[in-house]
């Protein structure tokens, strides 16, 4: 904590010094970010760009939205090496993304779901072009993006139960009415090779097409071949605009991953802390531990559309989608060297119909939502008894159907030119029907539906021309689930229900542009009160998940985001999230976890960076960038045992990019995780006598990138 205070003090000093240097500002025009408004800025060449976001399901200036929203453009995503879902945590300070096999677990302000099983519903949402993507379908999406948006805090009225913690939206590049394109190649440590590209086709005045693709391969970080990478993804999209008031963006994405799956063999702390990627050659039973013993074959197919029709002052939006993904993988789970086999095939149909309009001083958003997801899930464990012998143990075979319906509405009343009041409501109905066999032969027979109303009340006020203050009161929930490891009884004809988690949230803050539009300061405080919070942790030794309900949990904190354009060629940013996430009342027969820190909920997360562009002879530029992150640590399980804790870490990325005056190409060299910090992708299991284990995020890596555009 002392080191962190020094870091904050140093960052504040740098920012203060940079702002004092504005008298020497250059006059070159700044480069607008993706998603930025093209309207001229009143602050001159050094002003920050306006960013338009749709996180609240309406287009609005980020600084005019009374919510904690972060938006990052596609060019910055490329320059910072954001190439998979877990790396989004580097750019979204409120988010903590973890992985369990190919599953992405999204936590926002301490709220998420710690399982890859179908019997529990998501707690924070990941969306792709407005389409909710389930657990296994999140790979192969983070390329050729226009922008990423994250909205923190419960979104019960606009998104429903899947967004109790918040939502992350990925938006792919839409086709343009020209023949522009780009191609980039990366080579780096561990023989990393990645090619990414996109090409537009202007077919006619009303029809444009775009194709994009991404391929990446990498050798293992581990000495035994585990967790190597071999994946590709392709996207085709069409933009049809026959009139000024109608547009249809239709997209199809296919991804295929046949690399070696992630491993959970690394003990916490690692057996060799100086070389955490060194693993034993054999497991506890003498069975070999290497990449040849594992495999994965994962794919996803996503087809969808964003169809928009303007009628007078109203806009109607229709988002139909079909998602089909298959995950099949065999990996080492737990330090003893047992294997876990998972097969999951899911097919999802979803539709959302939305209306945005107005009636006098009232802006309105209303919509209908439908989702149906069918799951074919198998989970088995190979428990080794000798070098080549093992006992197969069936953990779960489930056929399941999830169905959700919802109707929602939100109104913003302009009481005066400066004062607005927001009211919103949503009615949701969720249903799960499941049949199969759980652990120890337990029969799975579950059929349950539940309806849920949610609300939002808010007020925002323009304190000055570029200063907005706001406060919100809203509800949210995490949908119910069931326990597949406890079967039906004579008195209860189905598996026990895991009750829904109910949330009441209060938040408030301000958004501001200061110093002639060169400094942006956004601050939000929040207080969440949860009832029956679903606490879930995976036990790698058994391959099962432990599920308990914490009767009462509280999360409160503050979220600070700063950006400054010091000169047209010099920018800095800083983000700080301080939160206190604890189980207040979490006790039952044989356990008492009251007062423990919630899973994947660090008390402190700091992100900051600086970018400086140097003008060279002939109009060429050299751009230097440094980004850093500090986290004070978090727990991977609600027991809060010492071996279940991710230690505090600090990691820094740096890059240097050269571009000629034509800006038709550029070359970048980079280093990531300069400190070579040991950061777990997830932490599983553990007890008072046995260490927890997990996989690791990448160590220090170096590389270069060549980009060409036309």
UniProtKB/TrEMBL annotation:
<dbReference type="InterPro" id="IPR036942">
    <property type="entry name" value="Beta-barrel_TonB_sf"/>
</dbReference>
<keyword id="KW-0410">Iron transport</keyword>
<dbReference type="InterPro" id="IPR000531">
    <property type="entry name" value="Beta-barrel_TonB"/>
</dbReference>
<dbReference type="GO" id="GO:0006826">
    <property type="term" value="P:iron ion transport"/>
</dbReference>
<dbReference type="InterPro" id="IPR012910">
    <property type="entry name" value="Plug_dom"/>
</dbReference>
<keyword id="KW-0812">Transmembrane</keyword>
<keyword id="KW-0472">Membrane</keyword>
<feature type="domain" description="TonB-dependent receptor-like beta-barrel">
    <location>
        <begin position="266"/>
        <end position="674"/>
    </location>
</feature>
<comment type="similarity">
    <text>Belongs to the TonB-dependent receptor family.</text>
</comment>
<keyword id="KW-0732">Signal</keyword>
<keyword id="KW-0813">Transport</keyword>
<keyword id="KW-0675">Receptor</keyword>
<keyword id="KW-0998">Cell outer membrane</keyword>
<dbReference type="Pfam" id="PF00593">
    <property type="entry name" value="TonB_dep_Rec_b-barrel"/>
</dbReference>
<keyword id="KW-1134">Transmembrane beta strand</keyword>
<feature type="domain" description="TonB-dependent receptor plug">
    <location>
        <begin position="62"/>
        <end position="167"/>
    </location>
</feature>
<keyword id="KW-0798">TonB box</keyword>
<dbReference type="GO" id="GO:0009279">
    <property type="term" value="C:cell outer membrane"/>
</dbReference>
<keyword id="KW-0408">Iron</keyword>
<dbReference type="Pfam" id="PF07715">
    <property type="entry name" value="Plug"/>
</dbReference>
<feature type="signal peptide">
    <location>
        <begin position="1"/>
        <end position="25"/>
    </location>
</feature>
<keyword id="KW-0406">Ion transport</keyword>
<protein>
    <submittedName>
        <fullName>TonB-dependent receptor</fullName>
    </submittedName>
</protein>
<dbReference type="InterPro" id="IPR039426">
    <property type="entry name" value="TonB-dep_rcpt-like"/>
</dbReference>
């Amino acid at each position: 904590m002392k080191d962190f205070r020094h870091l904050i003090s140093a960052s504040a000093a740098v920012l203060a010094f940079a702002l004092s240097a504005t008298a020497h500002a250059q006059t070159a025009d700044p480069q607008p970010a993706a998603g930025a408004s093209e309207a001229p800025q009143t602050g001159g060449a050094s002003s920050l760009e306006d960013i338009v976001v749709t996180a609240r399901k309406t287009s609005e200036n980020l600084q005019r939205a009374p919510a904690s929203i972060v938006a990052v453009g596609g060019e910055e995503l490329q320059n910072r090496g954001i190439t998979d879902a877990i790396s989004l945590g580097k750019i979204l300070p409120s988010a903590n993304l973890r992985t369990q096999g190919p599953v992405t677990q999204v936590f926002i302000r301490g709220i998420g779901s710690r399982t890859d099983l179908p019997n529990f519903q998501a707690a924070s949402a990941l969306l792709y072009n407005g389409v909710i993507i389930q657990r296994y379908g999140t790979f192969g999406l983070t390329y050729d993006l226009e922008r990423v948006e994250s909205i923190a805090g419960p979104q019960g009225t606009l998104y429903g139960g899947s967004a109790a913690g918040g939502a992350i939206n990925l938006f792919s590049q839409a086709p343009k009415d020209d023949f522009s394109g780009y191609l980039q190649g990366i080579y780096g440590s561990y023989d990393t090779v990645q090619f990414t590209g996109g090409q537009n086709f202007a077919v006619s005045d009303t029809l444009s097409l775009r194709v994009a693709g991404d391929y990446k391969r990498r050798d293992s970080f581990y000495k035994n071949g585990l967790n190597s990478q071999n994946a590709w993804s392709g996207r085709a999209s069409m933009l049809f605009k026959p009139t000024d008031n109608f547009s249809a963006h239709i997209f199809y994405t296919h991804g295929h991953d046949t690399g070696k799956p992630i491993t959970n063999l690394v003990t916490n702390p690692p057996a060799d802390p100086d070389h955490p990627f060194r693993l034993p050659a054999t497991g506890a039973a003498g069975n070999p531990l290497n990449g040849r013993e594992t495999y994965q074959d994962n794919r996803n197919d996503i087809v969808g559309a964003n169809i928009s029709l303007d009628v007078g002052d109203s806009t109607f939006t229709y988002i139909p989608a079909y998602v089909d993904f298959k995950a099949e993988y065999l990996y080492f789970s737990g330090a003893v060297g047992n294997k876990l086999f998972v097969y999951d095939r899911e097919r999802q149909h979803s539709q959302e119909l939305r209306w945005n309009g107005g009636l006098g001083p009232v802006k309105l958003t209303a919509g209908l939502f439908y989702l149906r997801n069918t799951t074919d899930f198998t989970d088995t464990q190979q428990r080794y008894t000798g070098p080549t012998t093992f006992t197969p143990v069936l953990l779960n075979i489930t056929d399941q159907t999830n169905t959700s319906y919802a109707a929602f509405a939100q109104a913003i009343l302009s009481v005066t030119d400066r004062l607005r009041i927001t009211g919103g409501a949503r009615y949701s109905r969720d249903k799960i029907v499941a049949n199969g066999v759980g652990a120890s032969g337990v029969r799975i027979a579950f059929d349950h539906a539940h309806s849920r109303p949610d609300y939002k009340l808010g007020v925002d006020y323009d304190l000055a021309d570029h200063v907005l203050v706001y406060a919100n009161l809203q509800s949210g929930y995490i949908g119910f689930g069931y326990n597949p490891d406890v079967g039906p009884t004579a008195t209860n004809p189905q598996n026990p229900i895991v009750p829904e988690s109910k949330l009441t949230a209060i938040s408030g803050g301000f958004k501001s542009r200061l110093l002639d539009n060169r400094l942006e300061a956004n601050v939000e405080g929040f207080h969440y009160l949860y009832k029956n919070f679903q606490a879930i942790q995976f036990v790698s030794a058994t391959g099962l998940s432990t599920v308990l309900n914490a009767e009462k949990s509280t999360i409160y904190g503050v979220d600070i985001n700063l950006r400054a354009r010091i000169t047209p060629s010099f920018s800095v940013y800083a983000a700080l999230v301080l939160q206190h996430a604890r189980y207040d009342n979490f006790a039952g027969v044989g356990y008492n976890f009251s007062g423990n820190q919630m899973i994947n909920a660090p008390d402190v997360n700091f992100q900051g960076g600086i970018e400086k562009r140097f003008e060279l002879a002939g109009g060429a530029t050299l751009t230097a960038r440094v980004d850093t992150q500090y986290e004070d640590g978090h727990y991977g399980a609600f027991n809060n045992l010492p071996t279940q804790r991710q230690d505090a870490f600090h990691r820094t990325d740096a890059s240097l990019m050269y571009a000629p005056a034509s800006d038709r190409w550029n070359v970048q060299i980079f280093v990531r995780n300069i400190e070579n910090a040991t950061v777990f992708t997830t932490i599983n299991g553990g007890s008072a006598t046995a260490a927890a284990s997990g996989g690791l995020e990448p160590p220090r890596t170096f590389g270069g990138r060549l980009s060409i555009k036309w």
